[in-house]
Amino acid sequence: MNIKHKLGIGVLAIATFASACTKDFAEYNTDPEVSPTLPPEYMITTSQKAMVDRDFDWYYDNYGYLMRWMQFTVAFPAGNVTGMFGAQNVNDYYNTFYTNIGRNLVEIEKIVGKMPEAEQGQYRNLIAIARIHKAFAAFRVTDVNGSIPYTEALRARETANFTPVYDNQEKLFATFDEELKGAVDSLMKPAAGQISYGTYDMFYTDANTATANYAKTANVLRLKIAMRMLKRNPAKVKQIVDDVLASAGGVYTSNAEEWKFISGKNFARGGNWGSQGNNASAAGRNMLDFLRMHTDPRLRLFYKQNGMTKERFDYIKLGGGFPETAVYNPQRYIGLPVSPDAVTLPENLNLFGTKTYSLVFAGGRKEDVTVDTLSQYQNRLFDLSGDGGADGFYTQPLLTYAELCFMMSELSVRNIISQDAKAWYDKGVAASIQAYDAMGKIAGVVEYSAVTTPEIDTYLQNADIAFAGTDEQKIEKIGIQNFLNHFKSPWEAWGSWKRLGIPKKGGILPMEPIMIGGVEGTIPRRWQLPIPNSLNTTNYNNALAEMQTSGEYGSPNQLTGRVWWDKQ
Questions:
Q1: What is the pLDDT of residues 144-185, one digit of tens each?
Q2: Burial classification of residue 97, based on how many CB atoms lie within 10 Å of its CB (0-12 exposed, 13-18 middle, 19 or more buried)
Q3: How far is Cα 371 from Cα 353, in angstroms, rounded to an integer?
Q4: What phi and psi, each to the nearest 5 degrees, are found at residue 303?
Q5: Would you tell me how many other CB atoms lie within 10 Å of the CB of residue 151?
Q6: Rounded Cα gap, residues 287 and 428, in angstroms
Q7: Is the separation of the CB atoms in 449 and 440 below 8 Å?
Q8: DSSP letter string over 366-386?
Q9: Separation CA 125–CA 131 (nearest Å)
Q10: Neighbouring C-alpha atoms within 13 Å toward the C-beta of 555
Q11: What is the pTM of this model?
């Protein structure tokens, strides 16, 4: 259709602050012929698609680095290597925010602003929802980069300003909070005659509930951003939390209201989505063992059993691949140690690599049988072409009810709010398990079996899981569950780990020290801020200098440095 052609070509023909040459950037941002009459309600889809169609991020950021840094996975069959902290070809979300996400969301406001004043009021909700998307995407960018252009960015067509200043995180977080609060207030006003995004909204597809759910999403996002400031400004955190909890917009009350994307059957198939291609991985041992030993129902939803079935074992034994005294081990969840040094340790040599058995049967028949004796993660959660390529649906959470529950529980333990911390924790654990059960079911993960309520109840009674102990132990348990809940969003697991330091070495869910040549490595904490075009070098250098004043940011390419919120 012609509308889709305009959406895909006209609106997207916009250059990036970070990489475009000056001539092209100016031309794109002053072109008066770009989508002059495109209805604003048609324009949300392109930004939403750019937020979730992230195969490049999965290939590089997630499969190659974050899932291994967070010890969800280990490179297989060779094991993690000494260069696992190199981090190349990452941070593409930064550029995408300026080219495809934020730019289009600003265009929605621009188009409405050019309408007759009598017509603009019916687009009030559209603009509020667009601002929620923009704040969310910009927060994801600054979260791992620090200072970024925002208040002067994305409006070069109107202002001809191709040298936007970089806003520091303290200012950005305050700006996001103000924008989100304003969006909620707008969405809560009487909505008679409001235009909706309707079927163009990829996230909240029911127009009857979309407005209410977006108001809740904005409030949950306000809480999430506030939590990042606990080490910097706890008084401000309390102010925001109190304001959110008094808001008429409310917060999520179930998984049904959370912000997520569920695809059609042709999404996330092969190519960079391929979860076992050049980034082939097995399960991390500590992670797998924790889930298995505590009978976490997510074990079978996160990971697959290895290939050594009883039938395969008996067949190999019959052919002489195992001695007569060999006894079958029914434990089929087997993971790998994370450290590059672990690959060469004698006790681990039998773990790495696939196992091929040369068999000889009665009558002299010979056969080589190869068995994967390690657990992979459930490929179909990430790549629908994996494990047989059957029909299925891909899910990408953006903000979840479970995360809200864990935030509320933590805020209660910290005495920032006065609510039942255990009740929120228990609801969060159940919500996370139920969410992954739903994801696994519609994705068609291998050997799927539905999670039952008694399973969840039993899990919550385990001593390492049950909400009991000192406040420090309770915070650790909340942190572990929030971390696990982000298995499908590794960048969020990274953020949770940085904020709380959980999982930790020697903890309930132990983080394995990363040993490289006998020296413990440091897991990176940020990306390198992309270098802009030459016109904006001064603002870029000023931003770096300001971030370095904290003494924790380090040099520009020092990935183990810390952004403002990530205070030691």
A1: 999 999 999 988 777 778 899 999 999 999 999 999 999 999
A2: buried
A3: 10
A4: -130, 155
A5: 13
A6: 19
A7: no
A8: EEEEEE--SPPB-GGGT-TTS
A9: 10
A10: 2
A11: 0.92
pLDDT of residue 54: 98
CA distance 260 to 148: 26
Q: What is the pLDDT of residue 157?
A: 73
User: Exposed, middle or buried: residue 446 (CB in 10 Å: 0-12, 13-18, 19+)?
Assistant: middle
User: How many CB atoms lie under 10 A from the CB of residue 183?
Assistant: 28
Residue with tokens 């995408």: 96
Report the Cα 424 to chain-centroid distance in Å: 22
In this structure, which long-range contacts are made by residues 50-55, counting pairs with CB atoms below 8 Å and at least 24 apart in sequence? 50/96, 50/100, 50/101, 51/101, 51/133, 51/136, 51/137, 51/261, 51/398, 52/202, 52/261, 52/396, 52/398, 53/267, 54/92, 54/93, 55/268, 55/271, 55/272, 55/273
Strand, helix or coil for residue 510: strand
**Predicted pLDDT of residue 4:** 29
pLDDT at 36: 55
Q: What pLDDT sits at residue 28?
A: 35
CB-based contacts of 466-471 (< 8 A; 24+ apart in sequence): 467/409, 467/421, 467/422, 467/425, 467/426, 471/413, 471/414
| Residue 264 DSSP one-character state | -
Tokens 């950005």: give the residue.
Answer: 172
Residues 6+ apart with CB under 8 A from 523: 69, 85, 514, 560
Nearest residue to 539 via CA among 167, 170, 172, 175: 167
240-272 per-residue burial string, b: 16 or more CB within 10 A, e: under 16 = bbeebeebebbbbeebebbbbbbbeeebbbeeb
Burial category of 516 from C-beta neighbours within 10 Å (exposed 0-12, middle 13-18, buried 19 and up): middle
325, with CB counted inside 10 A (0-12, 13-18, 19+), is: exposed
Q: Which residue has the tokens 């934020």?
A: 102
3-state secondary structure of 197: coil
Backbone angles phi, psi at 510, to 5 degrees: -75, 135
Phi then psi for residue 149, to 5 deg, are -70, 130
Give the separation between CA 136 and CA 300, rounded to whole angstroms: 31
Q: Quick check: 14 and 103 in contact, CB under 8 A?
A: yes
What backbone torsions phi and psi does residue 390 show, to the nearest 5 degrees? -70, 170
Give the model confidence (pLDDT) of 433-442 as tens digits.
Answer: 999 999 999 9
309 close to 328: Cβ distance less than 8 angstroms: no
**Exposed e or buried b per residue across 132-150, where buried means at least 16 C-beta atoms within 10 angstroms of its C-beta:** bbbbbbbbbbbbbbbbbbb
Phi, psi at 132, each rounded to 5°: -65, -45
Residues making up the chain, counted from first to last: 568
Identify residue 318 by its one-letter amino acid code.
Answer: L
- C-alpha 416: how far from chain center: 26
Low-confidence ranges of the chain (pLDDT < 70): 1-37
